[in-house]
Design brief:
Length: about 750
């Protein structure tokens, strides 16, 4: 292995922003009491308005009078005219009032009306993924796992920011006696117990990446966390009372030599979990420093969680494929920071932006797509590409991609005098939008929304638009969905193992940041919202810390099994999790599914693997004894060989040719109820496959008892197979516990 080989960080890179123009202040004025009960079927509506051209309001009272005119005009003969509840003057132009559906309909034809939406009830809660994942203070799994107390999470990344409130040690006990780590910087405490540099630079986190990932995995509770006033709430990592040790291995790149040195130190110093939000291209495991270091870690009972990479939706684009690593893909969460594009044809099209200025005019402005005539660089709003194009005072459509940053495209528009940017996904980006700290008013929209906007531009000689900022919206029921950028399987290094293993939150994740991106007056509690499998990985690292705290005797493979067999296949709306194209996500996108921490805490059965069990599997990959020895750190003779799918993994990846029948076994350990019986209660078998289970009843009489069953995958010679891959699953159930094992089949 070359000592100067380099590994790209597995993150959606976000630049530190030294300046951003405005800090959003959410303000409103209470005007009148709630309307009378006589209003038929009245509900609270929030009404968005545009000030008509030529009208100005010299005094707030004038604007208020205009708001009242909408209510007067829609008076339907009830005993009392509807009254304003709130009049808005800064967040947007409009008001809230108790209205009936008929009154709302009557408003729609009035000059200045934009939209009306029913009010929603919100509550303050964490920002936001712990709640999304079912983790609640003083309840359930969080409380039962003691919030990760006593567990040490080692993070290999770009450094950290001591003194940030996320790394305050309130409520965190001293580290366990086994800890032998070092702190090479001032500011360590019972939360941040170690900081070391392996880059020969400094421990300072100039990138922000390591600060963000560390706080996602194990940041303490911080109230009032937000960016630009958005996503306001209590920030907390997955294991908020666990200890954190930072090993800086990345500056701009991450060298294998530094990674291995850090992993070596972390093992010696006593970490329990390793979190690596970085990775490289697929190579044999014996050439992969992360895979080699991770094997040494799991030999000592250390759990290793790694990002899957950000090269999706391209097939076989994964990093960190070794079966002893938890490979984590990225999903969306049920929170949007919504900015809505309002077109001149009255279409309202939702997008996202973290920067939501309070003073952005709601009147229509010219809408342009320079890419129609200006070439590819102009379409991507590459730096300097708009200098000779008239975009001054206009809303500019820019295509995502081209190797240029999303925020950088906005800077190009701003430099050219543009008023706002609509960032339109390319077809491969699908529906995945991100809330960025843009430098001007913006809306990042899905691919199909971008097509709609461009179609409108082509349909009229004078296209116009504006952007309506709606702030934080919770409860998007299409979540979780697979992020378009999340790398996909099948694995190149080991096609007989399904990868990724799991998906977790990785889109628009708010966490600690070294500096303010919004010119906040808060000098310490600085946060940012970024995306990538780098963000999903530390979620699973923190969840693994909780599981290790709750089950200290579980092996890394047992923890991994618990996470995988209890994962969810459905989104909040009850439908199958979708990919970026609104299609059901396949096994190479989501692995076993979306993490469910509380269920993982009580999986019923686990598929355990001991370190030596990997040796015949590695020999079965065709590695020489010497190459296997590089990985397992001892002399090996490959006298025993097993096919990849025979490894006692919580999923199967099988290749079947014509007439093939392949037999595999799995051994499960009972960690649920002593006296319990499991049977197959749910099975999904694709066309072209016949599936037989040998030993389809598992009857346990004690805890930690092991039982083995067989599975036969048979190619159905009578069936016509229309695709090279198919997938399915089988579910063991005891009545109390359900244990699902997915499988993929490659037809050759």
């Amino acid at each position: 292995m070359s000592s100067n080989s380099q590994t790209n960080m597995g993150t959606k890179r976000s630049n530190l922003l030294p300046q951003v123009i405005f800090t959003l202040l959410l303000t409103f004025t209470t005007i009148f009491t709630i309307t009378a009960a006589e209003l038929e079927h009245a509900e609270t509506y929030i009404v968005h308005l545009n000030t008509p051209n030529g009208i100005t309001f010299d005094k707030p009272e004038d604007r208020q009078t205009w708001y009242h005119s909408f209510l007067t005009a829609t008076h339907t003969g009830s005993n009392e005219q509807p009254s304003l509840i709130h009049g808005y003057h800064h967040v947007f132009t409009g008001f809230a009032a108790k209205l009936s559906a008929k009154q709302v309909n009557a408003m729609e034809n009035m000059d200045g009306f934009v939209s009306a939406r029913r009010d929603r009830l919100y509550k303050l809660h964490t920002t936001h993924t712990p709640t999304f994942l079912g983790l609640h203070q003083n309840l359930g799994f969080w409380k039962g796992s003691n919030y990760g107390k006593g567990i040490i999470i080692g993070v290999l990344d770009t450094g950290i920011t001591p003194g940030h409130p996320s790394f305050d040690d309130k409520g965190v006990p001293p580290p366990p006696a086994k800890w032998k780590g070092k702190c090479e910087v001032a500011g360590c405490n019972n939360k941040l117990i170690g900081v070391r540099d392996f880059t020969n630079t400094s421990t300072v986190d100039d990138e922000g990446h390591g600060t963000h990932t560390s706080s996602t995995a194990g940041g303490n509770f911080v109230g009032g966390a937000n960016v630009f006033g958005m996503a306001n709430g209590i920030a907390a990592g997955m294991a908020p009372l666990a200890h954190i040790a930072m090993y800086k291995v990345c500056d701009v790149f991450c060298a294998d030599s530094a990674i291995l040195a850090a992993m070596d130190a972390s093992i010696e110093e006593g970490v329990d979990v390793l979190s690596l939000s970085l990775g490289g291209a697929s190579v044999p495991f014996y050439e992969d420093g992360i895979a080699v270091g991770a094997f040494s870690a799991i030999q000592r009972g250390i759990f290793v969680s790694c990002s899957a990479g950000n090269s999706g939706p391209v097939k076989s684009s994964l990093s960190n494929e070794a079966p002893w690593i938890l490979t984590v893909g990225a999903s969306t969460v049920d929170r949007n920071i919504r900015s809505t594009v309002y077109l001149g044809n009255k279409a309202l099209l939702d997008g996202e932006s973290l920067f939501q200025p309070k003073d952005f005019p709601q009147n229509f402005m010219p809408l342009v797509y320079p890419g129609l005539t200006g070439g590819q660089n102009v379409a991507f709003c590459a730096p300097g590409s708009l200098k000779s194009i008239d975009v001054k005072g206009k809303v500019v459509v820019c295509d995502r991609g081209g190797g240029f940053s999303r925020i950088g495209k906005g800077q190009t528009v701003k430099d050219a005098g543009g008023a706002a940017m609509i960032l339109a996904n390319e077809v491969t980006d699908g529906d995945t939008t991100e809330a960025d700290a843009h430098v001007l008013p913006a809306s990042h929209v899905a691919y199909d929304v971008g097509v709609t906007i461009k179609t409108y531009i082509n349909s009229t000689s004078s296209p116009v638009a504006t952007i309506i900022f709606k702030g934080t919206v919770i409860g998007v029921d299409s979540a979780p969905a697979v992020a378009s950028f999340s790398s996909r399987g099948p694995s190149l290094s080991s096609p007989g193992i399904v990868k990724p293993d799991i998906i977790g939150p990785g889109v628009s994740i708010l966490a600690a940041w070294p500096v303010s991106v919004d010119n906040s007056t808060l000098t310490k509690a600085t946060f940012n919202m970024i995306s990538g499998t780098s963000m999903s990985c530390p979620h699973l690292s923190g969840i693994s810390a909780l599981l290790k705290s709750a089950h200290p005797n579980w092996s890394p493979a047992a923890i991994k099994s618990a996470i995988m067999t209890t994962a969810s296949k459905v989104s909040l709306n009850g439908q199958l999790i979708e990919d970026e194209r609104d299609l059901p996500a396949n096994i190479f996108s989501i692995g076993s599914g979306h993490v469910n921490p509380s269920k993982a805490n009580d999986p019923g059965l686990i598929f355990d693997i001991q370190p030596n069990d990997y040796i015949p599997y590695l020999c079965g990959l065709g590695y020489t004894s010497k190459q296997v020895g590089v990985i397992v750190q001892k002399r090996v003779t490959c006298t025993k060989v097993i096919p990849e799918a025979q490894l006692n993994y919580p999923s199967f990846a099988v290749t079947l040719g014509a007439g093939d029948a392949k037999n595999f076994t799995r051994t499960v350990t009972n960690v649920g109820v002593a006296n319990s019986t499991y049977i197959i209660t749910d099975v999904s078998i694709p066309v072209g496959l016949i599936l037989e289970v040998v030993g389809s009843t598992l009857q346990f009489s004690k805890l930690n008892q092991k039982l083995t069953y067989g599975v036969i995958f048979i190619r159905d010679s009578k069936a016509t197979v229309k695709a090279p891959y198919a997938e399915g699953y089988m579910t063991w159930s005891s009545g109390k516990h359900s244990v699902r094992t997915p499988f993929s089949v490659k037809f050759v």
